[in-house]
């Protein structure tokens, strides 16, 4: 571990009289429009140790920051208080300004008088002003007690890991590998490709989805810089940015790759993807990749373009008859007794790209999904219209195999739904793919009518609006209103009951087939992976980016980044753009070789520690352990790089032996005293 | 399967005692055979009607419903009722007051004037729910109580709206009773009486009356009723069975109004489930006040008597 600077406990210079500078920000009218900033500035001057108090329109601007370092030089300040927005937004800005003035950056303290002040007390001028004074007084009390702290630098492993190998994960991995970073790509399915490989065409260009993705899949499978693990899942995570120890479980595939065969001494062996095994396999199962609409054997590949082209045994279905072993012959690729293997990889940064699944639309039972044969989901439609799908691209209706002459597309099937059953958010890409679906049925089936039941058409992307017009001109019928109900008629046709809000009347339209544009939600596995890496999520379970606008690929966990739909619904272009962004963000710490960690870690005061060990179990980050000290006593020690400074141990220690830097007991007590006892200390 | 007597405070509502007293008597008398003891809820007011009151002033609706709830709390009994409209008011207000402290305090402020306090100590059930619930009654026990099965007659079940919707505010709808869009529990109850419940189109459609529609725009209400009658008869129904006296009023009196206004004649008998259960347990049509129905129940009675 690289360690720069000195321990805070070693800086035993003679204490100097604190000299605090206070800077009140107007934030335009954000703050100054709702409370009296001048009164707050004047109040600050009455507080002990405050020698400078200023106010300015925008403290975060260059002139505002200059005020801080000029004052440090001119008035020999020992501490800085800025009363403005939030540390989350501008703490780094003001720390930099403090450091530029020659002070240690951790001598800066922020008072939140905007988000927790003027914004929430917008209509209470006097109350907001009083609260701002309180906040400033508390911050000043802490600023008088602050110490110099020195960030630690930790080295960063020159490797990255990408979890999920859809188009986002593939793009991220390729970018990282091309940047010279060894990248581990982990995919739970037997093949990479994700959702995009299940699609037929892409909007608005109508490129074949597989045509543009397959080359990428093949390239990712070939790239020496990408270590690909399919049929694998994350089992456990240890460590922190720069040194994540990720344990991977590789599920038993039952089939050896050429490399694995070579390792076992089988010359020229291993799976070549010839398919002889599948030919003789007696067990037939539905292919989940085709949503059960096509059969597969117990030894199978999901589709013709899989990467890696290695067969997989479904051990739940396999009867171990051994016919495949015989068929495989001298390649000896099949091992019916294969077991899961666990191994641990150390990586510097991690990108989560775990994608999405569709919301179970049968929960909106008024639409009759899984109840009526001819109500299908949009992903099922993609397979049915796809030339490589179960019906070789002939769209049929499930009940009788007839070609539909009218198709109803139900948009917002579970999206924008505030009933508590569906999802409140917009799933973003369903409008566009439903337009594409309408185009496909009109194009493929002469005379087929397409009805699109929509709430709004959100054609937000480049050339999307033009595509929308094109579909209108092709003759799709648009009915603006949410579908209330779908009824099955005796002939298995469906009656779609909706409101046409433009006509202001209810409509009932009989169609042969209904396609529900289902809402999307994060995959079930996303929740598991999220918890392992300690990444937050929003109320609707999408993974939470560090900042929605300024840090859309990062997370609040250092070293963990996001790409693709797991962060929120987005179409392919946005997914790929975010994947490239995440690759770039994840490569920065790796290329710089080291990262600075905030020096908020806990410290054990050994002479007070009784060695009870209670704190070790309390730590959520496994940062604490027990050691034998020089005097032979058992004491706790902190692995600083793992410590996030949460304070759980410090609050818990029965002996008060744990010192939380930057949040020491004297500092916190001074804040409490300042609040309750006013300015006098 | 007996001896376990379940006592409930019986909330009558308005329509049943005033227009279809047979429902009231049937509920009480059939309950005795099912160990469901319905104790009169003395001093109860109107529930109050969710459409009429709720559309005009929700606070009045909360307060009046809460007062009825307090009466049952004072008796120390859960409420049983026989009307979907009452169910919406009494059950939903109970549910809301239990989960919303602010609302509860506001309502108690009003109840103070009559020296009452809502505490949230009881539950509210529709009788149909209790018949279906194995812990209270259950299909087997219901079947055992039948001595004159209603064989050979096809009936259309009308669930009504307020019992199952809105789904997010109906706790039982999701688990015990099942799907709100394609439920089957009512058909199962009817089948237990020996009758033959038919599936018909748009089963979950409104009777046309609720939510104040009957009071506001009778022609529109009857239009919806007429559509239901078309769908029911298309499926071969010879009678309608409902769980709600207000729906019953709309179907029963509504058929007469449809004839008056549009000249369409249906003559489809309309019975509350309690009345049908009464018949199945051997009560006479007069005891059940079937002669007080607008649409003659004679064809239905002939059919079941013929079937025996």
Q: State the strand order across the main sheet of chain A.
A: 10-7-6-18-29
Provide the β-strand percentage band of chain B.
5-15%
If helices are DSSP runs of H or I spanning 4 or more residues, what is the number of helices of chain A? Answer: 19
Radius of gyration of chain B: 19 Å
Q: Which whole number gives the mean pLDDT of chain B?
A: 92
Helix and strand run of chain B: EHHEHHEHHEHHEHHEHHEHEHH
User: Which protein chains make the most extensive interface, counting residues with beta carbons within 8 Å of the other chain's beta carbons?
Assistant: A-B, 9 and 9 residues
Strand arrangement within the widest β-sheet of chain B reads: 2-1-3-4
The first-to-last residue Cα distance of chain B is 27 Å
List keywords for this structure.
heterodimer; A: 681 residues; alpha/beta; five-stranded parallel β-sheet; globular; B: 308 residues; four-stranded parallel β-sheet; 8 strands; 49% helix; 4 iron, 4 sulfur cluster binding (chain B)
Summarize the structure in words.
The complex is a heterodimer of chains A (681) and B (308). Chain A contains 19 helices and 34 strands. Chain A is α/β, with parallel strands linked by helices and 681 residues long. In chain A, the strands form 12 sheets. Chain A has a 5-stranded parallel sheet, sandwiched between helices. Chain A has a 5-stranded parallel sheet with strand order 20-27-21-22-23. In chain A, helix 12 runs parallel beside helix 13. Residues 1-11 of chain A have low confidence and may be disordered. With 308 residues, chain B is an alpha/beta fold. Chain B has 15 helices and 8 strands. The longest helix of chain B is centred in the first third of the chain and has 18 residues, at 58-75. Chain B is globular and about 55 Å long. The chains are: A alpha/beta (681), B alpha/beta (308).
């Amino acid at each position: 571990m690289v360690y720069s600077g000195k321990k805070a406990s070693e800086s035993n210079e003679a204490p100097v009289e604190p000299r605090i500078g206070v800077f009140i920000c107007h934030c335009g009218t954000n703050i100054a429009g709702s409370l009296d900033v001048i009164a707050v500035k004047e109040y600050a001057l009455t507080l002990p140790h405050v020698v400078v108090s200023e106010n300015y329109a925008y403290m975060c601007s260059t002139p505002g920051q200059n005020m801080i370092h000029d004052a440090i030089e001119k008035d020999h300040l020992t501490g800085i208080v800025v009363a403005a927005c939030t540390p989350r937004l501008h703490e780094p800005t003001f720390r930099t300004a403090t450091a530029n003035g020659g002070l240690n950056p951790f001598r800066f303290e922020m008072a939140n008088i905007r988000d927790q002040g003027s914004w929430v007390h917008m209509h209470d001028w006097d109350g907001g002003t009083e609260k701002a004074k309180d906040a400033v007084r508390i911050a000043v009390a802490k600023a008088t007690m602050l110490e110099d702290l020195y960030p630690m630098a930790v080295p960063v492993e020159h490797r990255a890991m990408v979890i999920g190998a859809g188009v986002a994960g593939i793009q991220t991995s390729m970018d990282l590998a091309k940047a010279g970073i060894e990248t581990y790509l982990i995919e739970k399915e037997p093949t990479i490709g994700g959702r995009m490989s299940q699609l037929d065409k892409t909007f608005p260009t109508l490129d074949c989805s597989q045509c543009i993705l397959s080359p990428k899949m093949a390239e990712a499978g070939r790239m020496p810089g990408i270590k690909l693990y399919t049929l694998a899942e994350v089992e456990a995570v240890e460590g922190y940015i720069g040194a994540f120890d990720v344990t991977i479980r590789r599920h038993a595939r039952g089939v050896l790759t050429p490399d694995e065969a070579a390792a076992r001494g089988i010359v020229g062996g291993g799976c070549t993807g010839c398919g002889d095994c599948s030919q003789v396999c007696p067990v037939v199962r539905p292919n989940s990749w085709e949503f059960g609409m096509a059969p597969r054997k117990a030894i199978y590949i999901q589709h013709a373009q899989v990467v890696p082209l290695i067969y997989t045994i479904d051990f739940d279905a396999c009867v171990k008859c051994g016919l495949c072993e015989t068929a495989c012959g001298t390649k000896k690729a099949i091992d019916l007794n294969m077991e899961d293997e666990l191994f641990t990889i150390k990586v510097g940064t991690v990108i989560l790209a775990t994608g999405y699944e569709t919301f179970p639309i049968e929960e909106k039972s008024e639409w009759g999904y899984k109840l009526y044969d001819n109500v299908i989901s949009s992903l099922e439609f993609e397979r049915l219209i796809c030339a490589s799908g179960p019906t070789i691209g002939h769209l049929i209706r499930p009940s009788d195999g007839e070609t539909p002459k009218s198709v109803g597309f139900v948009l917002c099937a579970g999206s924008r739904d505030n009933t508590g059953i569906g999802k409140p958010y917009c799933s973003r890409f369903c409008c566009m793919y439903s337009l594409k679906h309408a185009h496909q049925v009109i194009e493929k089936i002469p005379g087929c009518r397409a009805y699109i039941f929509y709430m709004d058409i959100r054609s937000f992307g480049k050339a999307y609006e033009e595509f929308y017009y094109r579909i209108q001109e092709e003759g799709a019928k648009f009915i603006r209103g949410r579908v209330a109900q779908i009824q099955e008629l005796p002939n298995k046709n469906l009656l779609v009951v909706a409101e046409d809000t433009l006509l202001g009347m209810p409509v009932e339209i009989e169609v042969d087939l209904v396609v529900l544009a289902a809402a999307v939600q994060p995959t079930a596995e996303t929740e598991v992976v999220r918890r392992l890496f300690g990444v937050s999520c929003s109320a609707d379970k999408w993974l939470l980016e560090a900042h929605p606008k300024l840090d859309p690929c990062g997370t609040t966990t250092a070293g963990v980044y996001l790409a693709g739909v797991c962060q929120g619904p987005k179409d392919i272009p946005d997914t790929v753009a975010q994947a490239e962004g995440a690759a770039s963000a994840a490569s920065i710490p790796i290329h710089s070789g080291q990262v600075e960690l905030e020096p908020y870690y806990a410290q054990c005061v050994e002479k007070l520690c009784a060695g009870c060990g209670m704190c070790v179990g309390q730590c959520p980050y496994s940062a604490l352990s027990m050691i034998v000290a020089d005097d032979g006593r058992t004491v706790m020690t902190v692995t600083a790089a793992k410590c996030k400074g949460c304070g759980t141990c410090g609050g818990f220690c029965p002996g008060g032996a744990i010192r939380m830097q930057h949040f020491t007991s004297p500092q916190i007590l001074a804040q409490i005293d300042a609040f309750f006892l006013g300015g006098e200390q | 399967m007996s001896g376990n007597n379940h006592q409930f405070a019986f909330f009558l509502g308005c329509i049943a005692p005033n227009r279809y007293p047979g429902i009231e008597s049937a509920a009480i008398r059939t309950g005795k055979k099912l160990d469901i003891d319905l104790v009169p809820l003395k001093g109860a007011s109107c529930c109050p009607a969710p459409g009429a009151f709720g559309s005009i002033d929700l606070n009045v609706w909360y307060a009046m419903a809460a007062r009825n709830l307090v009466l049952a709390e004072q008796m120390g009994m859960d409420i049983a009722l026989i009307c979907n409209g009452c169910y919406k008011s009494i059950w939903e207000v109970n549910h809301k007051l239990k989960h919303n402290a602010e609302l509860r305090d506001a309502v108690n402020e009003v109840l103070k004037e009559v020296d009452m306090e809502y505490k949230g100590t009881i539950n509210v059930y529709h009788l149909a729910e209790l018949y279906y619930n194995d812990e209270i009654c259950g299909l087997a026990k219901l079947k055992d109580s039948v001595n004159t099965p209603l064989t050979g007659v096809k009936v259309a079940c009308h669930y009504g709206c307020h019992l199952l919707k809105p789904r997010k505010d109906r706790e039982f709808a999701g688990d015990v009773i099942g799907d709100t869009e394609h439920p089957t529990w009512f058909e199962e109850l009817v089948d237990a009486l020996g009758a033959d419940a038919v599936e018909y189109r748009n089963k979950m459609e409104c009777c046309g009356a609720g939510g104040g529609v009957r009071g506001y725009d009778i022609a529109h209400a009857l239009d919806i009723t007429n559509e239901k009658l078309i769908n029911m008869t298309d499926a071969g129904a010879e009678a309608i069975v409902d769980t709600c006296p207000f729906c019953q009023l709309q179907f029963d009196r509504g058929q007469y109004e449809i004839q008056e206004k549009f000249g369409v004649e249906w003559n489809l008998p309309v019975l509350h489930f309690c009345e049908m259960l009464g018949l199945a347990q051997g009560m006479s049509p007069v005891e059940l006040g079937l002669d007080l129905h607008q649409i003659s129940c004679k064809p239905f009675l002939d059919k079941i008597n013929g079937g025996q």
